[in-house]
């Protein structure tokens, strides 16, 4: 027994010396398995979200990235996250379809020691590692300020706004609604109608406004919680021959969608909602390598895109 006790350190030292003597390219590289649960890819903004995330992952050869699409189903998204947990992924990124249904999965991963970076939409649990996303309340306020200015200015604004909401079970839709109303509800001569759930879909934005136009003789401005719904509403108004009597504003500012529609004169404004995937991956790696993110909550900046600013914006985006 004494012989084993004496020789074990010698063997260990020899192994360490040999390991240090290896050229760097022969040393074992630490790899990180990172899973991303995307709620859907039925929206162009989320397609861009995934594309930018993959581009960032390509910059990090130590990352093995797996993306799962929940196809707009909470139950599948829960199963996707649980699969990452069972397979011992090093970190999980998630953009939840809705807060209540995904809270348990985020909690389970966190409690099992897997850092979770929540992207875009929050959950009803705050002990995860990090949140990265836009300030949807502030984006809603910016949309409200634009609407008030367009309808006559603070204290003088008047008119009828028709609001088309995103998926109201999600925090971005709730915050884009609340921020908008924080501004426009101060104007007694502004009336906001609609407020129906368009689930972020272009065709639903179209159908909601198509029905509204049958019973509402005057609409001055349509506020949709994303650009596809705003554009769908514009299409419905155009079919009815009424698109010139109202303004349309949305959120996202994808260069090939919202910003393009502003340039074409179909939307009066869009507000940048930067996809958070690339920054989310950077924070996940920082957590895995350094033990903590840059901050618990990282807020991405917004930007107002109008006919006056769209060309500069597209140039900045390389378009």
What is the number of beta strands?
A: 12
Distance between the termini: 73 Å
Fraction of residues in H or I helices: 40-55%
Summarize model confidence as the mean pLDDT.
Answer: 91
**What's the number of domains?**
2
CATH architecture of the largest domain: 3-Layer(aba) Sandwich
Q: What's the helix count?
A: 11
Major β-sheet profile: 6 strands, parallel
Taking all Cα atoms into account, the compactness measure Rg is 24 Å
Textual characterization of the structure:
The protein has 11 helices and 12 strands. The chain is α/β, with parallel strands linked by helices and 319 residues long. The protein has 2 domains: 32-133 and 275-299, 3-Layer(aba) Sandwich (Rossmann fold); 136-274 and 307-316, Rossmann fold, CATH 3.40.50.2300. Strands 2-1-3-4-5-11 form a 6-stranded parallel β-sheet, sandwiched between helices. It has a 6-stranded mixed β-sheet with strand order 7-6-8-9-10-12, with helices on both faces. The longest helix is centred in the first third of the chain and has 20 residues, at 2-21. The protein starts with a helix and ends with a helix. Residues 1-27 have low confidence and may be disordered.
Describe how the helices and strands are arranged.
Elements lengths: L1 H20 L10 E7 L5 H15 L4 E7 L4 H13 L4 E5 L3 H13 L4 E4 L10 E5 L1 H15 L8 E7 L5 H14 L5 E8 L4 H14 L5 E4 L2 H13 L7 E6 L5 H6 L5 E4 L4 H14 L6 E4 L3 E3 L3 H7 L3
Parallel strand pairs: 1-2, 1-3, 3-4, 4-5, 5-11, 6-7, 6-8, 8-9, 9-10
Antiparallel strand pairs: 10-12
Helix pairs in contact: 2-10, 3-4, 5-6, 7-8
